[in-house]
Specification:
The protein is an alpha/beta fold and 244 residues long. α1 packs parallel to α8. The longest helix has 15 residues. The chain is globular. It starts with 7 loop residues before the first strand and ends in a 21-residue tail after the last helix.
């Protein structure tokens, strides 16, 4: 098995640290152990930030969030956002509403619905001549500018944090996690992950959801020996907010 040595954990939210949208106390405790070692926590999610904060107020304990499937960076400790792509024009959402697409979620960049509404979405893209892509995630359909995904968002996040992809352990469960898991130096899938995800990662965990993430964290801490400093002396270190 590939060796594990990391300065940061990049984790998906739904289906990974969360079970039915909720993160249990045992998983929070594991995340606290990881952070206490001097490493960084990065969340990589398809959710919008307002939605994520409603279901997971402990997000302030993460150092950085890659939200909207790679289209937005959010620094929880200062509540600062950085939009990484241009959103579709307002006409796009209006055309989808007219076509009866529901539910329809509009983020800073992302537009999201569910299958089988991918067909009217494609028709709207064609009608307006837009350069947009569809990303699927267990029945969800996310519409983003072409070339935007979790890997591009994480790449930008790591540049901001002055970290290398080789220093990151990634964990996920679904189709939209492929790109960022391939990007990380070491990749893992929780036991409930899709077969296609399990086939491409370095390690398939025994535990499901947060139990699997806790398993990965303990494995990283056990194999990596003494905790490494999070960044070099000349690198800025963000404030450390505890996971309540």
């Amino acid at each position: 098995m590939k060796s594990i040595s990391c300065r940061a954990l990049a984790t998906d939210y739904d289906g990974t640290i969360a079970t039915h949208g909720v993160v249990d106390e045992a998983t929070l405790a594991a995340l606290r152990r990881f952070r206490a070692s001097g490493r960084f926590l990065i969340m990589v999610t398809g959710r919008r930030m307002d939605d994520l904060r409603q279901v997971f107020p402990q997000v302030d304990g993460f150092d950085l969030v890659v939200a909207e499937n790679g289209a937005l960076l959010h620094w929880p400790h200062v509540r600062r956002d950085e939009v990484l792509a241009k959103p579709p024009p307002p006409e796009f959402a209006r055309l989808l509403e007219k076509a009866g697409v529901s539910p329809l979620e509009i983020g800073r960049v992302i537009v999201a619905t569910v299958e089988p509404h991918d067909k009217p979405v494609l028709e709207a893209i064609k009608t307006l001549g837009l350069e947009l892509q569809l990303i699927f995630n267990k029945g969800s359909v996310m519409i983003l500018p072409t070339g935007v995904n979790k890997a591009t968002g994480l790449d930008k996040a790591l540049k901001e944090m002055r970290l290398r992809a080789e220093e990151v352990v990634g964990v996920g469960d679904a189709e939209n996690d492929h790109a960022f898991l391939d990007f990380c130096g070491f990749s893992a899938a929780v036991a409930n992950a899709l077969p296609s995800v399990k086939e491409r990662v370095d390690l398939v965990l025994q535990g499901r959801h947060g139990t699997g993430v806790a398993e990965l964290i303990d494995l990283v801490l056990a194999r990596d020996g003494q905790p490494k400093p999070p960044v070099a002396q000349d690198r800025p270190v963000p404030p450390r907010v505890p996971l309540a």
